[in-house]
UniProtKB/TrEMBL annotation:
<feature type="binding site">
    <location>
        <position position="211"/>
    </location>
    <ligand>
        <name>FAD</name>
    </ligand>
</feature>
<dbReference type="Pfam" id="PF01012">
    <property type="entry name" value="ETF"/>
</dbReference>
<feature type="binding site">
    <location>
        <begin position="267"/>
        <end position="274"/>
    </location>
    <ligand>
        <name>FAD</name>
    </ligand>
</feature>
<protein>
    <submittedName>
        <fullName>Electron transfer flavoprotein subunit alpha/FixB family protein</fullName>
    </submittedName>
</protein>
<dbReference type="GO" id="GO:0050660">
    <property type="term" value="F:flavin adenine dinucleotide binding"/>
</dbReference>
<dbReference type="InterPro" id="IPR001308">
    <property type="entry name" value="ETF_a/FixB"/>
</dbReference>
<dbReference type="GO" id="GO:0033539">
    <property type="term" value="P:fatty acid beta-oxidation using acyl-CoA dehydrogenase"/>
</dbReference>
<feature type="binding site">
    <location>
        <position position="288"/>
    </location>
    <ligand>
        <name>FAD</name>
    </ligand>
</feature>
<dbReference type="InterPro" id="IPR014730">
    <property type="entry name" value="ETF_a/b_N"/>
</dbReference>
<dbReference type="InterPro" id="IPR029035">
    <property type="entry name" value="DHS-like_NAD/FAD-binding_dom"/>
</dbReference>
<dbReference type="InterPro" id="IPR014729">
    <property type="entry name" value="Rossmann-like_a/b/a_fold"/>
</dbReference>
<feature type="binding site">
    <location>
        <begin position="236"/>
        <end position="237"/>
    </location>
    <ligand>
        <name>FAD</name>
    </ligand>
</feature>
<dbReference type="Pfam" id="PF00766">
    <property type="entry name" value="ETF_alpha"/>
</dbReference>
<dbReference type="InterPro" id="IPR033947">
    <property type="entry name" value="ETF_alpha_N"/>
</dbReference>
<comment type="similarity">
    <text>Belongs to the ETF alpha-subunit/FixB family.</text>
</comment>
<keyword id="KW-0285">Flavoprotein</keyword>
<dbReference type="InterPro" id="IPR018206">
    <property type="entry name" value="ETF_asu_C_CS"/>
</dbReference>
Amino acid sequence: MARKVLVLGEVRDGALRNVSFEAVAAAKKAAEGGEVVGVLIGDSIQSLGNSLIKYGADRVVAVEDEKLKQYTSDGFTQAFMAVVESEKPEGIFLGHTALGKDLSPRIASKLNSGLVSDVTDIEESGGNLVFVRPIYSGKAFEKKIVTDGLIFATIRPNNITPLEKDESRSGEVTSLSAEIKDLRTVIKEVVRKASEGVDLSEAKVIIAGGRGVKSADGFNPLNELAQVLGGAVGASRGACDADYCDYSLQIGQTGKVVTPDLYIACGISGAIQHLAGMSNSKVIVAINKDPEANIFKVADYGIVGDLFEVVPMLTEEFKKLKV
Ligand code: FAD
């Protein structure tokens, strides 16, 4: 059944986040030959519309207002609902990001709709769209079918491959005015805590440190390896609790959930709460001096050794490959 599907293009620092292109690919599948309409919300963001089109959207609707410069739950809900009312979609897709996780239930409740969250794949079976999502902290996957009404889903970053960018694609980028009023939150200043560089939740390579790094300076070799591999640095809660790094780096049940192509765990024991955030990574390498460490049970490659010897050796070898 051909459907019209809306996809939110999530903007950060003036650029679209990669998960937006992944959500477009998912929406294309769910549209089943229907129309994929990109949605942009913000201030001076209309120029980003063409990128969404080159990655598969058929056209884009932009809601611009200076009150939408920063994300607020009220503001974005009002803007997105204005697009929904004007477009009357049969499907809505957002990234399963901090923004998507906050916005999607608000929209779903306004539309009295269900929501399939944290989708990692979409399959087709017997004429139905089947949404795959992890449950029990990633230990199992469930498959959901939406039998009736709006298909509304959030897409976990780094799982669905975006369509190839097609420079020849073109489509309309139109603006829609929406009345943004009665905002209960006013963002006065944004203070960044996370380190600069690659965004942890979308990184293809993550070098994570645990209590085994022993100090804040112990993260230096991990930073160097991340730099050589173009990756991001993450951490266990053990390392965060010990004040070796900021909590914004925490991966796990109460931290970020990540699915990079390569996850290198350094001095992390592999507690169940840590595994909940990283065990779906495509390739896991564990470096730990304890051969019995639990992390080796989920690792594809295990190195029993001192991270302060192993990590610099890896950095040097990867540097040679880059020359
Ligand atoms: P440890 O368990 O102390 O492990 C350190 C490891 O480093 C050891 O295996 C040791 O052999 C190794 N090591 C030491 N020195 C070296 C060296 N020189 N070279 C190589 N290896 C070395 N944890 C999370 O990570 N994320 C979460 O989101 C999270 N949420 C939680 C929620 C709840 C409700 C609870 C109760 C706990 C949660 N935890 C979480 C904590 C979790 O249970 C563990 O305590 C934590 O993950 C341990 O961190 P760690 O592996 O860095 O430290």
